[in-house]
């Protein structure tokens, strides 16, 4: 590399150095880039469940000043996770339209060989950004938050089955992806009902949800697939449906602790 005597850039191998203190971390990052395997992951889950916000938390973008939450994703998003492992993630858009199908096809049926999947769920509390869609649901008697959650748990389960089908097809091609982490997102909205949600999402209980993933594991072989569920909160805020409010209840330090735990678990699944 040419030595710049006049205007040396504050960057090493593409990593911007803001101050001397950061240098240690950057040297580690460069070292990792040279020595570690790249883990290719997909983030899946239904519309409005929190995939893009979770990605921004994992890449660090959510901590930048002036960050605002993303709009509905119209196409696949990608990012590198801030981690001691090399982890690249692609987010499949949730909206039932061609960008979602193209992305699913490319990630699970194309040239890419995925190492793992982060499947995002929100205990039946996705955000619907389309007013017409909201009105339609209310007209179908989904008027309370209780009814909303029950309806969306059905949608979530259907989506999980679709994702497992894609994983099964990928396994027929290259025996991967080898693992799946269920990100139980929006934990700030049901932190007080932790055991209930744990019973539904955890691999250690026999729920309808767990059965779908256990069937997949038995089908592709226990040596070829494992899964777990980890609670997380990407963006704490009250949830409102048809005038009813479910308050967000989570202190900033608790949220940080959940995020740190999520990242730790993710790193342990990556090589
Ligand atoms: N309470 C709460 N709300 C959240 C959380 N994460 C996301 N949200 C809300 O959910 C909305 C949707 O989040 P996104 O990350 O954009 O959802 P997505 O899964 O990417 O949705 P699509 O792009 O439509 O597939 C956000 O705009 C927030 O209003 C969370 O941890 N807690
Ligand atoms: Mg999105």
Topology:
Layout: E1 11-12, E2 15-16, H1 23-35, E3 38-44, H2 51-59, E4 77-80, E5 86-91, H3 98-109, E6 116-121, H4 131-139, H5 145-174, E7 179-184, H6 194-201, H7 208-220, E8 226-231, E9 239-241, E10 244-246, H8 252-269
Helix pairs in contact: 3-5, 5-7
CATH architecture assignment name of the largest domain: 3-Layer(aba) Sandwich
Helix content: 40-55%
Overall structural class, as computed from helix and strand content, comes to alpha/beta
Our count of helices gives: 8
CATH topology of the largest domain: Rossmann fold
Present as ligands are:
guanosine-5'-triphosphate, magnesium ion
Net shape: globular
The CATH top-level class label of the largest domain: Alpha Beta
CATH superfamily of the largest domain: P-loop containing nucleotide triphosphate hydrolases
Question: What's the total number of strands?
Answer: 10
Tell me the Rg in angstroms.
Answer: 20 Å
- Measured between the Cα atoms of the first and last residue, the distance is 31 Å
User: What is the percentage of strand-forming residues?
Assistant: 15-25%
Described by strand count, sense and barrel closure, the largest sheet is: 6 strands, mixed
Instruction: Catalogue the unreliable spans.
Output: none
